[in-house]
Amino acid sequence: MTQSDQSNDAQSIGPRIVATGGFDTLYREGMKLVEDAAAYLDGEGRAASKILGRDASLLYASQSMQLTTRLMQLASWLLLQRAVREGELTELEAQSEDRRVELSTKMADTDVPMWSELPQRMRQMIEKADSLNKRIHALDAMERGGAAEQAEPQNPVNSHLARLRSAFDGPAES
């Protein structure tokens, strides 16, 4: 097998993962996080934010907007991939300019002042969203045959294995 054949085989791993049960797990996890975050922000989180000091309250508002935006991007990507998987769209249609979902690579900045003042549940949801974002971003990069944003790997097999682990390692239990 030539290096080009190996590269093509490795690049086709992403679509095969999406076509298997691994995607179903990722989809359920992502949609559950969206639901949990919406319920939290509309209920318990709203109450918790009212007792925060001024600076922490501003950080909470900013982080809740960023969390909501990140989760909507991820949900859009998941829904688009599910439509392709179920035959509602072709891969080409899903990649068209008007349907394409741009995923943000920006993660929450946990080094900001007042981070520790945010409610623990809010910080946990942000961490879960960041973990999900990394996994989906890695899977999206594999589907396109590109590399996730990282240095050029020494061994292509190790690079693909690392991306697979990243895409399917669930968030740490809290």
Concise description?
It is built from 8 helices and no strands.
What does this structure look like?
Helices cover 67% and strands 0% of the residues. The protein has 174 residues and is mainly alpha-helical. It has one domain: Helicase, Ruva Protein, domain 3 (Orthogonal Bundle), CATH 1.10.8.930. α3 (21-42) packs antiparallel against α7. The longest helix is centred in the middle third of the chain and has 32 residues, at 54-85.
Helical/strand content category: mainly alpha
CATH architecture: Orthogonal Bundle
Low-confidence stretches: 1-13, 147-154
Order of helices and strands: HHHHHHHH
Please state roughly what percent of the residues sit in beta strands, choosing from under 5%, 5-15%, 15-25%, 25-35%, 35-45% or over 45%.
under 5%
Name the shape in a single word: elongated
Oligomer: single chain
Average residue-wise pLDDT: 78
Characteristics:
8 helices, elongated, mainly alpha, disordered N terminus, 174 residues, Helicase, Ruva Protein, domain 3, 0% strand
Can you lay out the helices and strands and say which pair or pack?
Elements: H1 3-11, H2 13-18, H3 21-42, H4 44-50, H5 54-85, H6 91-94, H7 120-143, H8 156-168
Helix pairs in contact: 3-5, 3-7, 5-7, 7-8
